[in-house]
Amino acid sequence: MSGDNYGIQTAAGHLTVAAESKEPYAADVLAGLHEDAAQVVAKYPQKRSALLPLLHLVQSVDGYVTGRGIDFCAEVLDLTTAEVSGVATFYTQYKRHPNGEYTVGICTNTLCAIMGGDQIWDEVSEHLGIGHDETTPDGKVTLERVECNAACDFAPVVMANWEFFDNQTPDSTKQLVDDLRAGKDVKPSRGPAKVCTFKQVSRVLAGFHDGLADEGVGAGPASLEGLKLAHDRGWTAPDGKSGETATDDQQPEATSNETAAGRHTSTDSAANAPDEAVDDKPATLFDENEKNGKDS
Ligand code: FES
């Protein structure tokens, strides 16, 4: 699949699926996708619930959500292509054009911005010659402005394929993208000792673990400062038994588990019934009779 449209995406382009992305999968690739999809779908009572991981699975193969990937998800999950596209265009982690091998996200949310994130963005964007959601011509780096990464204590923060690079500067981030483009090993500030590729990470997000989730340090020194202070001063968290407790008249009223006749809670509606209950038979992925009956 050609990467000719790296770096030339426009807002309109995000909604346009390139014709090449509709090329059929090779037979062995398609067989592998079906095999993996069956494992993902089996985790959910309703197969349509598997759409988000399946879109990541498509990205792990194609590098973005292709037209053929949308067709695949729709067929496997018994959805329309419009329903699949509606989801794929809603979440920013799903790419509608070829993505780089590394997504480099520069946090420009409030705290990071004032701590230098805006400056990092300006300099790195100029250094690479690309803007938001654009990719270097070599297909290595897709640059993104990202919102708060819940790592404000390490501001300004940059992420490469969702691995943290803390306390960044314009120079350190330019070095990071240069190293990524040169194929050098880069080590995140926390977590695993390497940054996996976009396709590798997409497979993890689809639910296939790579064994790296617990590797490395999870919380850095800044995040642990409060805990250290508490230890130094002998503070402990309330155990729920001592200190202030709610008086009887502050206790919430006991409520019945039963729902009034004709009413549904958010989880017991017919729409949320497992596929087995709806069809009175086990959900299957590739039930050709069911598919043919639906299509006819
Ligand atoms: S504002 Fe950047 S991590 Fe929170």
Automatic annotation (TrEMBL):
UniProt signal peptide? none
Supply the Pfam families for this chain: 2Fe-2S_thioredx (PF01257)
Q: Which SUPFAM superfamilies match?
A: Thioredoxin-like
Cited Gene3D superfamilies? Glutaredoxin (3.40.30.10), NADH-quinone oxidoreductase subunit E (1.10.10.1590)
Is Iron-sulfur given among the entry's keywords? yes
The entry assigns this protein to a family as follows: Belongs to the complex I 24 kDa subunit family.
> Record's PANTHER family?
NADH DEHYDROGENASE [UBIQUINONE] FLAVOPROTEIN 2, MITOCHONDRIAL (PTHR10371:SF3), NADH DEHYDROGENASE UBIQUINONE FLAVOPROTEIN 2, MITOCHONDRIAL (PTHR10371)
Q: What is this protein called?
A: NADH dehydrogenase subunit E
